[in-house]
Amino acid sequence: MNRHTSHIEHFRGAKILRGxxxxxxxxxxxxxCREKSSHRREWHGYFETQQQIRLESGVHYKLVLxxxxxxxxxxxxxxxxxxxxxxxHVVEFYxxxxxxxxxxxxxxxxxxxAGARRSLRG
Length: 122
Hints:
With 122 residues, this protein is mainly β. The protein is built from no helices and 8 strands. Strands 1-2-3-6-5-4 form a 6-stranded antiparallel β-barrel.
């Protein structure tokens, strides 16, 4: 029987960078890690941002969490889920590689000290 382990976390106060340029500050969103039976991890998530802020599909950005973790991400806007005239829109992302903590890969799940966290098993 194969078991997959997942962790989900609500992050606050994050930043999105393109190179050294800060594109978005004080970002709130969801970050999820799923470890497959092969011990390979997949990181993904989403956040809302102001309507006028657009991220280019296929461009790699850097997500920096307020606890020091960071990751290279590929982000894309979710089309058709925002009501006409909305001030915010949803952006989903997946992590390219792994989530890093102070320059080294983060090994299993999410930091226990890093805000609200719950385990999902399935």
